[in-house]
Design brief:
The complex is a heterodimer. By secondary structure, chain A is an all-alpha fold. Chain A is built from 13 helices and no strands. The longest helix of chain A is centred in the first third of the chain and has 34 residues, at about 1-35. Chain B has two domains: about 25-145 and about 305-360, 3-Layer(aba) Sandwich (D-Maltodextrin-Binding Protein, domain 2); about 150-305 and about 380-420, Periplasmic binding protein-like II (D-Maltodextrin-Binding Protein, domain 2, 3-Layer(aba) Sandwich). Chain B has a five-stranded mixed sheet. In chain B, strands 9-10-8-11 form a four-stranded mixed sheet. In chain B, helix 2 links the parallel strand 1 (about 30-35) and strand 2 (about 55-60). The chains are: A mainly alpha, B alpha/beta. At the A-B interface, helix 12 of A face helix 3, helix 4, helix 19 and helix 20 of B.
């Protein structure tokens, strides 16, 4: 009896959460798939309606705006966060005295919720309150910075706020990575006459491949889920110019009585995540197998 | 210290337990609403006290935030789980939309109360119709107020200073606005949030297009009207109005825009009569400091009726509570006091108006006149004219047009297309 318990205790402890996840995550994913093939309006209904909802989704102008914005946002957000994160990490890694203090400052935006970030940037970027007014009051009367109210540029304001919030986190990841690089390698490279720049580019950064991978995955899933930041900063506006898929989905599901179409858009978001995660997992698992 | 906290917590829990104990004769009611701030909360407290005074047990279910967005999520979850609240703040065609899902009735318990109190004679036919389910035959909701949407709120001092009077046609407004703009005043205080763009749009559609056009295009969704030449004119006027707004308009909250009118930075705002609360709180008087007059139209009147829907209930106590709630909501006293707080006018026609201010009195008089001439129309922007999917489709196009340089023809074409796709 005791032996049996000892052998199975881990499984017993883990099984409730396993069952809960199986039902509430995977069960609901399947449920959402099914609902996207029904005529559900205000409440879910279960009579099959074929791919009509997907058809309606892809003939909706707002959805195209949302998808386009997601692409713009994801690319810029991931690239900028990683660039700034690496730069900050490298600079902080130069054994400077106030590192602990500076690290806290850069990491601090992460402690704020996206709602707070969005609201703060909404005021900063508002042309009649923020930066533009500041510069005009200082005498630069022609100064214009109206991205927040300019429908061509509004999506970039979301990028600015999101990068401000998340690049510190990426910095922390890379800093940890840099600390794990063996000093001996760097010393050896220096003896061989390599400059600091080429040491970083050709030796250290390629060694940080796993850090790149994990930050990219984390950043991409933040960007696909991004909802609160958009709501707080632009609420999808001006017009619907800064719509994102998550915003679109919530609107359809809860304000428009279009649960079927909302599910269809959720399925699209899920497939997007899947398209990124599966190759990543595949390559990582294969590498693990190979190294075994 | 800790001990004190523990004792007071225990005391609080005990008190809560007592107050939640099963109800007496009046039954129990759980009411989902999003009237959690200032005047709205005070207004609702009148109903709570009324309910408790009649021996009922009121279980408040306020869901704050987002003008009801958060509340809708809670509500749907509760209804899907088979545990709907006694009543929820639902209005317009959404009432019938819920009924279609089969969760309102039969048996429509409140209908018995409505028949007994003869609601048909207390409400205007149009408002009464909104409250009925089962093919518009049985009452399943109760109205608490009527908001008018098509108002101009204007700063009197600013108009006087420039020798202007309240415009009686859109052309007059455009002329006045151009004059103000030249003088460095923002003619139209506006927040370009989708619902505010839609609010302005419907006032323009009613004014420029006329009552019949509004009825055909916005209420009946007649494709010819939606894509016709009149609609192009409506969008033209929207474009003109956009030129009268300032750069900070996108995303601005409506009350901030109202503040601009109060301060004299801007001259006009188009907004429902909840804007009056802002003026009143600042101690300003209608007719002296500001004007509240309808936007130009042929005696049109866009109404927004707040109401509570009554879901299908099981259990004697809950049904009793629901009936009591329905009868109190239609009570003369509640309708008066509630609307004095809220800035709207009573849905019941026989409530004396003498305690109300001149804006509300004007609104009540216009309502009766418009009801006779066909100008009384449901507000689409506030969910009275259309179901949510169609409302959303129109709103998308309106806000896209207003916040871009889309041509009126293109907007008209997209409008018809979007409505067709949403049906």
């Amino acid at each position: 009896m005791f032996y049996w318990l000892q052998k199975n205790l881990p499984r017993i402890v883990i099984s409730p959460s396993f069952a809960v996840i199986l039902w509430f995550v995977y069960g609901f994913i399947i449920w959402t798939f099914y609902v996207s093939f029904t005529k559900s309006k205000m409440l879910p209904r279960y009579d099959f309606w074929g791919i009509q909802q997907h058809f309606r989704l892809w003939s909706n102008m707002r959805w195209y705006t949302a998808v386009e914005n997601l692409l713009i946002f994801t690319v810029l957000f991931v690239v900028l966060c990683i660039l700034i994160g690496i730069l900050l990490a490298i600079l902080l890694d130069q054994k400077i005295r106030t590192e602990g203090f500076l690290r806290t400052i850069y990491l601090y935006p992460m402690a704020l919720s996206f709602i707070v970030t969005g609201t703060a940037w909404k005021w900063i970027l508002n042309p009649t309150l923020g930066i533009q007014k500041l510069f005009r009051d200082l005498g630069f009367t022609d100064f214009t910075f109206d991205w927040l109210v300019n429908r061509e540029m509004s999506i970039y304001t979301i990028v600015i706020a999101a990068v401000w919030q998340s690049s510190g986190f990426v910095m922390a990841l890379f800093l940890a990575g840099l600390r794990s690089v063996d000093d001996e390698i760097i010393k050896a490279a220096k003896i061989d006459g390599a400059g600091l720049y080429s040491i970083y580019i050709t030796i250290i950064l390629p060694m940080l491949r796993p850090v790149f991978m994990s930050s990219i995955v984390i950043l991409i899933h933040i960007s696909i889920k991004s909802y609160d930041l958009v709501i707080a900063l632009t609420a999808g506006g001006p017009g619907t110019s800064s719509d994102m898929p998550a915003v679109f989905m919530t609107q359809m599901a809860f304000h428009r009585s279009e649960i079927g179409m909302a599910s269809a858009s959720a399925v699209m978001m899920f497939l997007t995540v899947l398209a990124i995660i599966v190759p990543y997992l595949y390559s990582e698992l294969r590498r693990q197998d190979a190294s075994r | 210290m800790l001990k004190q906290v523990l004792i007071s917590t225990a005391g609080f829990l005990f008190a809560t337990a007592v107050s939640l104990s099963p109800a007496m004769a009046g039954g129990e009611a759980e009411v989902l609403h999003w009237w959690t701030s200032g005047g709205e909360a005070a207004a609702l407290k009148v109903l709570k006290d009324d309910f408790a005074g009649n021996g009922g047990t009121w279980k408040d279910m306020p869901v704050a935030g987002g003008g009801g967005d958060a509340a809708m999520q809670t509500l749907k979850a509760r209804v899907v789980a088979g545990d709907p609240p006694t009543a929820a703040q639902i209005k317009g065609p959404s009432i019938q939309e819920w009924d279609d899902e089969g969760v309102v009735g039969p048996p429509y318990h409140v209908d018995a109360v409505a028949k007994a109190q003869n609601w048909d004679s207390l409400l205007s036919a149009q408002v009464a119709n909104h409250m009925k389910c089962d093919g518009f035959t049985k009452y399943c909701a109760a109205p608490v107020n009527i908001h008018r949407i098509d108002w101009f709120w204007a700063n009197k001092k600013v108009l006087d200073a420039h020798g202007l009077t309240m415009p009686t046609s859109w052309d007059e407004f455009n002329a006045a606005a151009s004059k103000l703009q030249a003088a460095g005043i923002i003619p139209l205080a506006h927040g370009s949030q989708p619902w505010q763009d839609a609010t302005v749009f419907e006032a323009v559609a009613l004014g420029v297009g006329g009552n019949e056009f509004y009825q055909k295009a916005i209420v009946e969704l007649n494709m010819d009207a939606l894509s016709g030449a009149t609609m192009v004119k409506v969008f033209d006027q929207m474009r003109t109005l956009q030129g009268f707004t300032d750069e900070g308009a996108p995303g601005r909250d409506w009350n901030v825009a109202t503040g601009m009118v109060m301060e004299g930075k801007a001259a006009f705002q188009i907004m429902g009569d909840w804007a009056k609360g802002e003026f009143t709180n600042a101690g300003l008087k209608p007719g002296i400091d500001y004007y509240c007059l309808p936007t130009p139209s042929d005696h049109g009147y866009l109404y927004n009726v707040d109401s509570f829907i009554f879901y299908s209930m099981d259990g004697k106590s809950k049904i009793e509570g629901q009936k009591l709630l329905g009868s109190l909501m239609m009570g003369k006293n509640f309708q008066k006091v509630f609307n004095l707080y809220k800035g709207s006018i009573p849905a019941r026609l026989d409530v004396p108006m003498d305690e109300f201010d001149m804006c509300a009195k004007g609104s009540a008089a216009d309502l009766n006149y418009s009801a006779m001439t066909g100008g009384l129309q449901p507000s689409f922007a506030h969910g009275m004219a259309l179901r949510l999917a169609q409302k959303g489709a129109i709103q998308d196009v309106v806000t896209e047009h207003f916040n871009s340089n889309m041509s009126s023809h293109e907007a008209t074409r997209r409008l018809a297309q979007a409505v067709k796709a949403s049906l």
